[in-house]
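Why show two proteins at once? Because comparison is the fastest way to build intuition. When a single record is shown, students tend to memorize it. When two are placed side by side, the eye starts asking what differs. So, the first record is below.
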Amino acid sequence: QVQLVESGGGLVQAGGSLRLSCAATGSIFSVNGMGWYRQAPGKQRELVASMGSGGIINYVDSVKGRFTISRDNAKNTVYLQMNSLKPEDTAVYYCNARISPKSGRLENYWGQGTQVTVSA
């Protein structure tokens, strides 16, 4: 079956960098839009960055100029390069993708989440 596998989270100091990766695996016909959400304790989940199949990119205002989303279509993988990290970026980051499996209908998939912690 199709799943999203995330990696790259960790603990960094403020001002540091991390790169998150999310690979779509399984019997896939096509991967359409991919993106990253995050959720901190007691906070609503928010869209951080997204990239549509046509290359249209969207960022939440709080990360503009610091985060960069990119895709490697050959690997069905989306990345989130996070620079100049702030304590406010601390959250669980979730990958999301719109995927057409070879044997199924177009569906929305979520990764398992990866913890990002930024210390002051």
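Second record. Ask yourself what differs from the first in the token line.
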Amino acid sequence: QVQLVESGGGLVQPGGSLRLSCAASGNIFSLNVMGWYRQAPGKERELVASITSAGSTKYADSVKGRFTVSRDSAKNRVYLQMNSLNPEDTALYYCNVRWTAGLLSTREYDYWGQGTQVTVSS
């Protein structure tokens, strides 16, 4: 019902830049949090950056100052501008949207994209 599709990944040299884009569709509550996670082989999935519908952002310490997350709520899209990339940024990047809603009872909603590969190598 809710679908997230990432794009913009690829191969880039150290120090280079990429911009990831995520297009969300379906019945998505307007008050939500959209973000990016990444997972490298043999490592746990980690939060890279997130942004609420009010514009509040969070970043992993490892990417702070290099990455910028933004969103276009009218289009249900979230972006990740990645600058000064290094080989440690190599991972599969996933888009995520989540929210809590309900009148009679609350319910958590959590959806994920299929992932887009980012490889940083010379």
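One difference worth noting in the second protein: The chain has no helices and eleven strands.
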